[in-house]
Specification:
Mean pLDDT: 91
Largest sheet: none
Helix content: over 70%
Number of helices: 22
Structural class: mainly alpha
Low-confidence stretches: 8-29
Strand content: under 5%
Distance between the termini: 90 Å
Shape: elongated
Number of domains: 3
Number of strands: 0
Order of helices and strands: HHHHHHHHHHHHHHHHHHHHHH
Radius of gyration: 30 Å
């Protein structure tokens, strides 16, 4: 208790000095105070230098020097420095659940400073933190994220529930718990979690959006549309939700509303190639082939690697009797995505139109090699082989 009071006084003096109320010269002979002054000024490299002086001399504040040196390396996103300092601290007989938690957060890549999270390392540190007594709601949330990323969904559910027990109004916790349930295929549990979130906050945009996504996955398009509309009422700038609303109408075969929504979406963000693709699909459904071609070409203009747009464009040409142009588009789709069985299947149909049965069989076999469960390709292959 006395030591905590001493640290508090030092930090208080350092904070006051930062605002000019104490002459910094007063702190000049105290390495720990100078280190804290540098740390609180966000000069983390300078802070490490001062803390190293205490560590090398086994000074009075040895534990605290290791503690803040570790935190300084974490602030610098220096994984090696963090690991080495914590290991050296443990050799001295010290340990800290809080530091293991912070190191776990570093491995989780919460600030997106690395290419990807290191979930296995995060779990090791977080489990050490738990063993040393860290049990806050935010800590359990971090544990849940790590377990979720590792595919350990049951453990993730447990951790989210522990977080929510401590903080029942933690809306993000309900949303994340629902996402885990959705990954597990437990849609009713996911829906219940999101409904509980709404009871705590009836105007949370993320909750309505996730309810829309959940209902979409469940195939309940009418309900999904209502949730997406509510989301856009709360935040009309969410273009991705506007696109999803259009897709929902499309799946409901309400093509007029879908077209209106897609046009509204590209008015806000002209580069959304998926909207152009589905506008092309709607025009194809309405036998407006020239309009469909225009939209498919716009989809390709905004995403030159979008294989489905090439395939759809080829289908229109095939319908118009322009077999060679169709084959050209299917070939382009294969060039953009060599491992896409759908492109090989559609190319096979074009070969059949040209009475190129052997080429069609080869294309179908290629599609089935990529996806042995491709029913349409198998049925068409069987027809060709039995004729």
């Amino acid at each position: 208790m006395l030591r905590r009071l001493q640290i508090f006084v030092i930090v208080l003096v350092v904070v006051i000095s930062l605002f000019g109320f104490v002459n910094p010269v007063v702190l000049a002979d105290d390495s720990f105070s100078q280190g804290m002054l540098a740390y609180l000024s966000q000069d983390y490299s300078g802070a490490i230098t001062y803390f190293d002086q205490i560590i090398s001399s086994k000074g009075e504040y040895l534990y605290d020097a290791y503690h803040y040196k570790t935190l300084a390396y974490i602030k610098l996103y220096d994984l090696k420095g963090t690991q080495d300092t914590l290991a050296a601290m443990q050799k001295e007989g010290f340990d800290s659940g809080y530091l293991h938690w912070r190191v776990g957060q570093l491995y989780l890549n919460k600030d997106s400073k690395f290419d990807s999270p290191m979930l296995d390392m995060a779990l090791i540190e977080l489990e050490k933190a738990y063993d040393l007594g860290i049990t806050s709601a935010v800590f359990h949330q971090d544990m849940a994220v790590a377990y979720q990323g590792m595919g350990q969904f049951e453990k993730a559910v447990t951790e989210y529930k522990l977080a929510l027990m401590q903080d029942p109004k933690y809306i993000e916790g309900y949303v994340n718990l629902a996402l885990v349930y959705k990954e597990m295929g437990k849609y009713e549990e996911a829906y219940a979690s999101l409904q509980t979130a709404l009871e705590n906050n009836a105007t949370n945009v993320s909750v309505y959006q996730n309810l829309g996504d959940l209902k979409y996955v469940m195939g309940e398009m009418k309900e999904a549309a209502e949730f997406y509309k509510k989301t856009l009422e709360l935040n009309s700038d969410l273009v991705a939700v506007s696109l999803k609303l259009g897709l929902t109408y499309y799946n409901m075969e309400n093509y007029d509303l879908a077209k209106f929504q897609f046009l509204k979406t590209i008015e806000a963000k002209p580069y959304l190639f998926q909207a152009y693709y589905y506008l092309g699909e709607i025009e194809t459904h309405n036998d407006n082939y020239e309009e469909a071609i225009k939209y498919y070409e716009l989809a390709i203009e905004y995403n030159a690697n979008y294989a489905d747009a090439y395939i759809a464009l080829g289908d229109v040409y095939l319908e118009q009797g322009n077999n060679y142009r169709a084959m050209s588009q299917y070939t382009l789709a294969i060039e953009k995505n060599k491992n896409y069985p759908k492109a090989h299947f559609h190319l096979a149909k074009a070969f059949i139109k040209q009475n190129m049965t052997s080429a069609a069989i080869d294309s179908l076999r290629t599609a089935l090699h990529m996806n042995p469960n491709y029913t349409e390709a198998q049925q068409l292959l069987d027809q060709l082989l039995n004729n």
